[in-house]
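Support reply, case 0932

Customer input (verbatim):
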Amino acid sequence: MDNEESDPAESEEVKSTAIVKYSVPKPAQFMKLKCNTDLNLPPSNWLSSSADSYGLQHVLYHQKGFSRMAHMFPDCVGEVDVVSDAENIKNLLKIPYHKGHVSMMVHRVENTLLLDDFDIYKHLLRTSETEWKWLKKFFFENVNHETCEEDRNLYMKNRRRETLKQKSLVSKFLYHSLVQSDNQEHVELEIKKTLPIPLHGPQLPEPVSATPDSTPFDHNYNRNVVWTFEDIEMLIGTDLPIFGGGTHPCISLRLRDVSKPINVLTGIDYWLDNLMSNVPEVVMCYHLNGIVQKYELIKTEDLPRLDNSKFSPKLIRDVAQSILSFLKSNATKAGHTYWLFKGKDEEVVKLYDLTSLCSEKDVENGQNPFTIPVAMLLYRVARNMKHTLDRQPGTIRMLLKNCIKLLPEEKYPEVVTSSHYMLSDLYVPAGTNPESPGLEQMEVDENESVYDDDDFVGSDKDSATKILVLDHSDTCEKFVNHYKSPPPIAGTVEERCLQAVQHVALGLNCVQYFQVRSKQAQEEEVPMAKPFEPIPMPYSKLNETKESDSQRKSKKSRDKNKKKTEKNLDRTENALLLKNNNEARPLPTWQNQDATPNISWKDHLKTLLYEKALLVYATLSEQYFGTRAYGHSLRTIGLLARCQLIMNRLLYISNALKENCLLGRAGDCCIMMIQNWDKVDAYREQFQNSTDEDLKMMEQLEKDERLYNVNIGDSNIKCVFIYDIRTIEQMLLKGVECYEQALKSSETDSILRRLGNSLNEVASFYLNKAKSSRTSDLTVEMCKRAEPYLCRGLTIFEKVKDDANIALLYTNMGHLHRLLAHANTPENRGELSPKEKLHYNKAFINYKKALQVLGDRKHCPGIWDAVRWELSTAFFNMGTIMHENPPSNITKTEAEKQVIEVLQKALQYCDFDEENPKFPLYQYRAAMIHYRIGCLYHSHIVGSDSANRKCVIQLAKINYERASKYYILALDVISYFTAQMQRVALSEYLTETANAPNVKIKHLQHCLDIFVEIDDMITLLVEKKVDIPENETELDEGSELKGFRTCFSLLNLIRQRLQHVLKMLVKLCLTKPPLNKDCPKLAEVYKSCYMMSFDLKDGIVYDELLNKLHSVLKQISVKLAEFDKTAD
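Our regenerated output:
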């Protein structure tokens, strides 16, 4: 049908012909609305499914898909000049009257240009910095920035309430204009159910010849039209609703606001829409605020001459021819992506060859002009090479990729899906051990040459940008193909796995296009595999009894691989897939043809792809776990589990995946994250940032989960699905849950041990929170949470007879009771409460059980040392409390006896092995214990009977002496001085209570020896080998009441007692008559020493006192040594 446009006034004429190739909607009967009809009110049929057949729903939701038209009409590809959405064509033709920018992507397939709108704001300005990185950089370097603002304004305008309201008003108007019909069509889909049956051996479909396929897509245009505009032939998709009725069988409806006159761009829009669909008339309905006012009928040829909307069809025709000639002569490279761009208010159009401008292939290529027979040939060659062990995988990959690029997956889903499966198998071959993949790069056969017409990059970047002045056409340029040898399959295990995942996802995406063809259609086609009947491979026959050479090689290879995997089975027991072919085959296999009459290629290939996904994700998860990328590993395990759930719903039930291994590895990831919590931010980023390949796979998983009604919450492996990594507690509990579920699946020692460890980790977490809590109630709450986990852990480790971990859990149980004892401490510290005693005793029991389980230190030194330290600490803490707050219900003597017993037990568990890491701590603890025991014996001296008194005095001296020895080793100045002065005080007390002068002299001489010992520590202070805080060098305020707590006050005390002891010795030695023959000489020595101490005056500062005291003690030591020599 021809529709010619003419303008007698300007002698303009355009030729336009439109041939409808495909039309979805039924003709809509037009009903003229009454005046004052309120269009704001939705009609009863608005957006109803009964009206979908008229195509009115696209008014609100317009989608573009020119490339799909090329798939639907392969006969047009290469024949028409342009394939595109009608809106894109209109935007190009309106360039003379539209000063805004135009942005489109151009691809060439044979002699056909594929045009697609490129929304700069949507694709470049709203995306993240990492997306379209190169193109963004190129855009900002070459394009006026006003374009950004214009695109943004347009984007925001299209989403404003007024715009959406206007679209809604137009939609309601069109539905109002429909003649109401009571007849509604309902289409019901019948789903055939088949029972699960076993599959054997991966067969792949035969290549077939090209046949038309009218399978509908997600979005079909109302019409697909071959539109000839002058000498330009275009295949376009348009959603223009067409009405008819009465004397006007074909009209388009337009809703106009009475208050707003039509502008030029709108007039061109209406004119081109009518030309593209061969609509001779347009009916204008004028409204005011949604109230219908009047109608006006305008012929299409009159649209260019409307008031306020006059335009030149000839100018539009010239622009169309100019732009097409420009594109045809410059967009010459098949497989390249071109960007057609006109900036705002610019008079030139630029064409950028993005593929040539980019050194790497950052810009994806469109479809390439290879024919279907060539694609089938590539598939056949690749498939046969795949089954030849000595062929190069890189070549096979190149063949399959070109095949996929050339084939419309909607028409040939069996071949495209099979190609994707083979590509995934090239990257991760069947039988790969996930724990030790061994994916090695294969060598390239340099003498091999295989057809490849697409993998090239233009080298002349200077010619990659072409410019069209709107009244000028460029000359045509030729393009020469460059052969590029296929690279070998290389990369890391992760890279190869991600490539395999990508092809699995693409293969699964093709499965949606599988259709059950009727017998009549099958008879008309070239003989090929029937959808429900498996066919033999070309190199073997099902009923053949004699093995071919290739079969023998394949069998020999399988036997060899079987032996190899069985040999490594014990070493890889924790890998996610079974390696023993007797337990699970790496791929499903076919039975003979007669035994499986209901198996379709769709089910078979889908099963193969999911089986491959299991292997790939298992390998990838093990790889990530081995490299300590636990966030990646956990995310991958989640995808692996989703694949397994879908496999369980397919016709083939896979037993290749061991659920307990999957759950166990998920638990391992959780626990390992806890042990490396300082890297949790990296783990979160790994877990949340899915790769592009994983995102594609997730899309397919979501579709199949809906298809098979897979509910993750009802599965046995639901615990592996973690949505975020928040806290340590969350991950610990999730790890325990995974191990427990794994144990239900299959009980093994490995899982039991890992569960026990995780239970201990949870308990330790709660114990740490209890330890750091500020309130006793919170401490008790945390301990209550921890106790069940410790009890369960003990049960598990006792079951597997793991002594080291049993001891560890008993230790933690003891620590728990220590914390509970501390939590039950009364606010006003008094004597031990019954609850404190109870928990301390329980702690002692558990610590001793731990030591009993270990037997000796050699069994497990680390745990042994920890238990002894904890036990010693518990006894020490309890003894300290009892010492400072003795029980009130028993006598003082009995109380002191109990304290000494407890402290001696604490001392018993101190380890004085110098190789022990805690040796210094043990020394210091021993010093404190000895000091306290010495103090107890010291206080016990008064009131003890004469028979026991001598023993008590001796014990007090021994403990004070040992405490002093350990304190000086620990370099604790304050404690050392305190202990030594306690020894002095004890000797002074004994001096006062002694009756015999000789005994008094003996006790005072012992005091003097102690002062000489003290000089060892003072020497360290003088030489600054011991650091003293500044506050320790000041005198205590009210020291007589508060005691001597600083170094300065203790030095003053030493000075005072030294002078006192010397004075007493002088007096005793000068007694008449002399007590012994040495008394006169001793009196002279002590008198001399006493005179030396006069330098130690009251009120001197710390440094002076320290140095003088050191000098005096040194002189006294020399004097005493000289006297001892003369006496000898």
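We compared this against your earlier run and they match. Two observations from our side: The chain has a mean pLDDT of 77. Residues 491-513+575-583+599-695 form one domain. Please reopen the case if you see a mismatch on your end.
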